[in-house]
Amino acid sequence: MQPPPPAPPPQSERTVSIAADTVDSAALIGPARELLIRHGDATYRLRITSQNKMILTK
Fold first, then answer.
1. 11 or 32, which is more confident
2. Contact 42/58 with Cβ under 8 angstroms?
3. CA torsion 19→56→33→13, rounded to 10°?
4. How far does the chain reach from its first CA to its final CA, in angstroms?
5. Does residue 9 carry a pLDDT above 80?
6. CA angle, corner 28, sides to 26 and 30, nearest 5?
7. Residue 13: CB partners within 8 Å, gap ≥ 6?
8. Pfam families under this entry (predicted)?
9. What is the Cα–Cα distance from 38 to 40, expressed in whole angstroms?
10. Is 5 part of a structural domain of the chain?
11. CATH number for 34
12. What mean pLDDT do residues 39-56 have?
C-alpha cells in the first residue's frame, strides 16, 4: 500500500499590527491590491483601484 499524497501547502499567512483599532491598508491588503474578507456566510472583496481608492464589494 502506498502512503497518501502529501498535503497541499497551507495558504500564505501574514501578521498585521492593529494599534488603537487602526490597521494600515498596505499592511492589510499587501502587494496584490486585493483582499477577500469572510463575514458570516458572505465573502467581500476589498480592493485598491488604479486611482488609489478603496472599494468593498459583496
1. 32
2. yes
3. 60
4. 46
5. no
6. 55
7. none
8. hemP
9. 6
10. no
11. 2.10.70.10
12. 95
Helix (H), strand (E) at residue 57: strand 54-57
| Structural domain includes residue 44 | yes
Residues 12-34: what's their mean pLDDT?
A: 86
> For residues 54 and 4, which has the higher predicted lDDT (pLDDT)?
54
Question: Which amino acid is residue 2, in one-letter code?
Answer: Q
Report the chain's mean pLDDT, rounded to a whole number: 86
45 in a domain, yes or no?
Answer: yes
16, 23 Cβ separation under 8 angstroms: yes
Asked whether residue 45 carries a pLDDT value surpassing 60, the answer given is yes
- Cell triple for 56: 468593498
For the question of whether the overall pTM of this predicted structure is more than 0.70, the answer is no
Grid coordinates standing for 31?
A: 502587494
